[in-house]
Amino acid sequence: MHYAPGDGKWQLGEKATLLNELRQKMTPEDYEQDKQALKEFLCGYFSSGDCRNSQGNSICPVKASPSGGKVLKVRWAYPGCGKSGSLRLVVVAYCDEKRVVIAQAFDRREDPTDDDIRDAVSDL
User: Contacts for 100-104 with beta carbons within 8 Å, 24 or more apart?
Assistant: First the structure.
């Protein structure tokens, strides 16, 4: 199945506060470009037909959320972060609903633990 960014619903979880902080540092244009690029990147993964496998070092399926969504750990570099920057995102994909929630964001140096991931998706 082919997924496109406009096909579903994209949400930012309440615990993803780091993304709001980064948004304040970006121009509105840069933020929209980055948001669109992330959506396209994730849609490419969803369209691959096998969301049980990792996509290189960028996307790694971790587990299922309590509500049945597929939990992914995603590496993402935002504009201006440089080679050593970037984020680790905890993303929950509800494939049947075509809904994606960015549950939590961590600085690259803070690779989320299993407990961090469990906490990020506990109320989704």
Answer: 100/8, 100/9, 100/10, 100/11, 100/39, 100/42, 101/11, 101/12, 101/13, 101/69, 102/10, 102/11, 102/12, 102/13, 102/16, 102/19, 103/13, 103/15, 103/16, 103/71, 104/13, 104/15, 104/16
The Cβ of residue 99 has, within 10 Å, a number of other Cβ atoms equal to 14
Cα distance between residue 33 and residue 10, in whole Å: 15
Give yes or no for a contact between 120 and 112, defined as CB atoms under 8 angstroms apart.
yes
pLDDT digits (tens, 9 = 90+) for 14-37: 999 988 888 888 889 988 998 999
Secondary structure E strands in the chain? 9-12, 59-64, 70-76, 87-94, 99-107
Say whether pTM exceeds 0.85. Answer: yes
The residues near 124 (Cβ < 8 Å, ≥ 6 apart) are 13, 65, 66, 67, 69, 92, 101, 103
